[in-house]
Amino acid sequence: MRADQILHPTDHGLYCPPGDFHIDPIRPVPRALITHGHGDHARAGHGAVLATRETLDIMAIRYGEDFTAFRQVADGCIRIGDTQVSFHPAGHILGSAQILVQPDHGPRIVVSGDYCRRANPVCAPFQPVPCDIFVTEATFGLPVFRHPDPVDEMARLLASMAEFPDRPHLIGAYALGKAQRLIALARQAGIDAPIAIHGALQRLSDYHIGQGVDLGPLVPATADDVPSGLVIAPPSAFASPWVQRFRDPVIGFASGWMQVRARARQRGVELPLIVSDHVDWPQVTDTIRELSPEQVWITHGTEDGLMRWCELNGFAARPLRLVGYEDEPE
């Protein structure tokens, strides 16, 4: 069986005919396999959903318990039609997984979803999975993107807090994954006092704590006199009246896109923190070299740059041209 008969892009997302399922579909489908809980990959309305336990829990938090008629926890190797599928850690956010699709006859395909190779204190590390075809994101698929160590970025945050002790530090971070990672990194950097969080982060942060992620003491961000001077909020909060309750704040934002100075200026960011939950250029190219697949399929990102690198390094590659995937929507 040819690879494109096993998995191919459609208007709804990646579709597997032998198993009759979609992976991270952008529209409601009868059967969906979900890599992780971010809103551009995990949508409500599917007839049945197969995902990790954490992803199913997160979808229930975000969409309500009735987000699907049927849900199944991905555990071990699962038979679906003429395929077997299994879920493996992606290192992106809590519960994130790569999906290995093994047809009865044909190549092994790994759909990596969003993934990261740096240590992340809020989720399991990326697990390399041998495969014939590797489906990779290319969010930061250009050589210019080389993200610094998050520990160094936390040192920059602490230095700013020491330099401006009377100014609250308001840091924007996506509500699922990035916010909790930033809090955990701040704890590792030595911030022991309570950290204030926007109300939009409360339920997801509580869930992480319930799963054993140490976030330390958290308090509601209802005033500018928080004990640590550190406030974490979703980016959307910075365009609302909420931000006006803080006097002369230092505005920061944690994202891999903060390496692009124009983006930081457009957002009015005084303290850009380059902390990404996606692979940068060295990580994605090193991963391809490590797996050494027969083919690389590239999706949602700078596909042409990675296509050219694959061509120069002897890897057969193709773009999937999937649409509907972007940074976690707010």
UniProtKB/TrEMBL annotation:
It comes from the Bacteria. InterPro entries: MBL (IPR050698), RibonucZ/Hydroxyglut_hydro (IPR036866), Xnuc_lig_assoc (IPR026360). GO terms for molecular function: RNA endonuclease activity. NCBIfam families: Xnuc_lig_assoc. This is Putative mRNA 3-end processing factor. It comes from Paracoccus homiensis.
